[in-house]
Amino acid sequence: MNNFEFSEGFKKRTQEFSFRIIKLYKSVSGSVEGQVIGKQLLRSGTSVTANYRAACRARSKTEFLSKISIVVEEADESVFWMELLKTTGIIPAKQLESLLSEGCEILSVLSKAKKTIKTQLKNS
Q1: Does 29 have pLDDT greater than 80?
Q2: What class does CATH assign to 3-123?
Q3: 103 and 78 in contact (C-beta within 8 Å)?
Q4: Alpha helices in 1-124 (DSSP H)
Q5: For residues 17 and 103, is the Cβ–Cβ distance under 8 A?
Q6: Is the entire prediction scored with pTM above 0.90?
Q7: What is the DSSP letter of 90?
């Protein structure tokens, strides 16, 4: 798989992640805590997709590193908010299991990409 195929596939994957975040947000209870945490997750989760797409349009490896760093932060924040929803019982653990797993996988892939680019820039 070449870089273009990977990036196009990953765009779709992050977009699906955003769709699932939106669906989850719609199911959050009307409690103040649920709404506040849910909105934070909605912002960070959809930001993963938007910022990944921006990173794919980077004009240089340095710009890509800068943009992918933002995506890593947003993905990590999304995982945090899902963990908080689970830990507090606002959303049942079973309901979050698959989405939380996907968030962790996305974070892992993005973190590896960031590390690879950082190494390439350091060695060039």
Answers
A1: no
A2: mainly alpha
A3: yes
A4: 3-27, 32-56, 61-87, 93-123
A5: yes
A6: yes
A7: S
The one-letter amino acid code at 71 reads: V
Domain positions in the chain: 3-123
Which 8-state DSSP code applies to residue 88? T
- Whether residue 93 has pLDDT greater than 80: yes
Q: Cβ of 63: how many Cβ atoms within 10 Å?
A: 13
| Class of residue 53 by CB neighbours under 10 A (exposed 0-12, middle 13-18, buried 19+) | middle
For residue 32, CA distances in Å to 23, 27, 40 come to 18, 14, 12
Sequence-distant (6+) residues with CB within 8 A of 96 are 24, 82, 85, 86
CB 41 within 8 A of CB 82: yes
